[in-house]
């Protein structure tokens, strides 16, 4: 405040109060300009404007949600469990689905292989029969 500034420079204030007021106003305006410049540099360096815009979007999206946001309980084991269990259950169901697909694929390949073996056995018998007939 101007009163604090004047009390710091009491002798100068008593001699020339108008000049003290002018110095105070110049000091305040330069200080405000320097602070604004520093803030702008920080915003530019950290890309804060884009981050704040994305944060605003997240806040707007969260307003439409009815369920409460997740908050940590303070017990790390429970927090990790509550976050990981749904993911792991989803992953387990995916792995089970993939396993069923692979088992079905293996069953088809096994049937195909058995059919091939039967065909080979038939061909061997045919070869043997023709060999005996030829001899």
UniProtKB/TrEMBL annotation:
It is found in: Chromosome, Centromere, Kinetochore; Nucleus. GO terms for biological process: cell division; chromosome segregation. It holds the Pfam family Nnf1. Keywords: Cell cycle, Cell division, Centromere, Chromosome, Kinetochore, Mitosis, Nucleus. Its main location: nucleus. Transmembrane segments: none annotated. GO terms for cellular component: MIS12/MIND type complex; nucleus. This is PMF1 factor. The lineage of its organism: Eukaryota, Metazoa, Chordata, Craniata, Vertebrata. The gene is Pmf1.
